[in-house]
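Side project, low priority. Logging it here so it doesn't get lost.
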Amino acid sequence: MLDFKVNRIITADNIKHGIVTNSMQVVENFKLVYGFNKTVSLLKTIEDKKQNCYLICRLGDYVGFLNYQIDMGFSLKLTDFENNFDSALDEYLDLQKKDWKEEDIIKYLKIAKEIENESQPSKMTISNH
């Protein structure tokens, strides 16, 4: 089981989100899935661009939203749809209202569907380290 460390867990509209605001915890969470070398390479590439950016990816049984802000570093939101694709569709409507790019919303949904079809047991644990 993958144990992701998050700073807090919030529930909004019956969807659980783990929030990571510490760059080092973001690195540790990515290492669980991608290993040390791939994680360092990925995050260094993002930092070297010296521009704000984001990445949508799968981290265990969660849809991950990695955000990089030049002045703040990395943050991460893990979204747990609990293998309920209907919840992902509800989130789709919310993301449309937030003016997300359509291709990003589709990527988000594809990951949620992938998780529904092929689980990788995961949990979120609150940690402030």
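Brief comment: The chain has one domain: 2-126.
Revisit when time allows.
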